[in-house]
Amino acid sequence: MEQDRIYFTKEFSQKYIQPLMEGKKTINIQVQTAGNDSTTMVLHVSTDGRCSLKKGWTNFAVQNNIHLQSICIFHFYKAAHI
């Protein structure tokens, strides 16, 4: 894997991701593929307004055979507090 993180566009980040971050610039999140265990990653808002997944992305991508130019679909949601 040549890329150590994945970036989301500024528009996508501002509309869908940042509202879930409650004003924080960096949060830990759980990422998983269907039927597999989750992995903790860091979701970060950069100074240009884009969000990126890092610290764990490379291993996750390798383990799930995700490579450059792969198409990934993400579902972002805030889990209810139990």
What does it look like?
- About 20% of the residues lie in helices and about 25% in strands.
- Strand 2 (about 25-30) and strand 3 (about 40-45) form a beta hairpin.
- The mean pLDDT is about 85.
- It has one domain (about 5-65).
- The longest helix has 8 residues, at about 10-15.
- With about 80 residues, it is an alpha+beta fold.
- This is TF-B3 domain-containing protein.
Shape label: globular
Number of domains: 1
Determine the number of helices (DSSP H or I, runs of at least 4 residues). Answer: 2
Order of helices and strands: EHEEEH
Task: List the defining traits of the structure above.
82 residues; alpha+beta; 4-stranded antiparallel beta sheet; 18% helix; globular
What's the helix and strand layout?
Elements: E1 6-8, H1 10-17, E2 26-31, E3 39-45, E4 51-54, H2 57-63
Antiparallel strand pairs: 1-4, 2-3, 3-4
Organism: Oryza glumipatula
Keywords: DNA-binding, Nucleus, Transcription, Transcription regulation
GO molecular function, one term: DNA binding
Question: In summary, what is this structure?
Answer:
The protein is an alpha+beta fold and 82 residues long.
